[in-house]
Amino acid sequence: MIVALAGGTLPPDDVVVAALRTGDEAAFAALLDAWSRGMLRLARAYVSTDDSAQEVVQDAWLAVVEGIDGFEGRSSLKTWVHRILINTAKKRGVRENRAIPWSSAFERRGEPSDGSSRPSRSPGEDGVPPGPWKDFSALWPTPEDEALASEVRGQIATALAGLPDRQRIVITLRDVEGCTSEEVCEILDISAANQRVLLHRARAWVRGRIEVYFETVGRPA
Amino acid sequence: MKRFTHNRDKAVNAVKRFRCAEVVELVTAYLEDALDEPARLGMEQHLACCRECDRRLDQFRAVIGVLGALPSEDGLRGDVRDRLMSAFRDRRHRRP
Ligand SMILES: [Zn+2]
Fold it and tell me: Where is the Putative zinc-finger domain (chain B) (predicted)?
């Protein structure tokens, strides 16, 4: 029985897996709620619409339901579920002509295409999380009012959207979803060095875009 | 003199000297703690006396912090979630 879910932390894998095998609906619901948002964000990197992403995540979870009895615990449950998701998303992406060649991930494909021409989207009206903005405001103008904080989030979203797919997937898994480098290597089946190169290029690009943004808005008109 | 040579080699091996362009490329490896000891020391030595690179490192950290706090996307659509829950229930009925 899954109980300790306060604060969003899941019990250890063996507990969760045992609960799923016995048909514990609360356990399954907890897992759906814990991972689906991240999975949707990831799926969205492979397919072209939000509806397709919903379908990909749905099909991945159905495969998890079918396959849970065969889960051998050679990787973590999270890695296993995300690998199923990536495989499902890839198949779907191929149908949509959005195949991502991971095997050639080492090739230099130049810097990301310029995402600055895209209009920035306003990401909503959530409160400003104090932690990250505290570090941020030591370096760039303080996003003290929600309008600027929201504008910066919009700039970051735009910068992410301007990245090549593989870089966006890696930075999404690592920095947005908080996966470890080991998890990302396992999920995407790439080497640690390759993961680091992709992550570094992606971070450098986002940092550069934010720098450019503040150079632009910082100057009096 | 043998001892002198030995000491000098050791000093050379102990800390790598980096140019700014090299430091830029190693920021993520540094943050991942993936550098060997001489490279890490060289990195820290450079950062201690180069404001520009030190600031860039802080900017990387700041960007990583904000990325980790982005508002999450909408979750699963209600109908999708319902379908998954009922698929999970059906499975138990098929395999008691
Ligand atoms: Zn420097």
Answer: 20-53
CATH 3.30.450.20 fits A104-217, yes or no: no
The CA angle B73-A162-A135, to the nearest 5 degrees, is 65
Interface ipTM > 0.90: no
- Are B18 and B46 in contact by the 8 Å Cβ rule? The answer is yes
Question: Residue B67 is nearest to which of A32, A69, A156, comparing CB atoms?
Answer: A156
Does residue B50 come out as left (phi exceeding 0), alpha (psi in the -120 to 50 range) or beta?
Answer: beta
Q: Which amino acid, residue A55?
A: E
- B9 DSSP 8-state letter: H
What's the pLDDT band for A202 if we cut at 50, 70, 90? very high
Domain borders along chain A are 3-95, 104-217
Instruction: Give a yes or no: residue B26 inside a domain.
Output: yes
Q: Does A172 have pLDDT greater than 70?
A: yes
* pLDDT confidence of residue B17: 86
Q: How far is CA A73 from the centre of its chain?
A: 23
Ligand 1 centroid to Cα of residue B42, in Å, is 11
CATH number for the domain running over A3-95:
1.10.1740.10
How many CB pairs below 8 Å do chains A and B form together?
124
Nearest-by-Cβ selection for A37 from B29, B62, B73: B73
Whether residue B96 lies inside any domain: the answer is no
Total of domains in chain B: 1
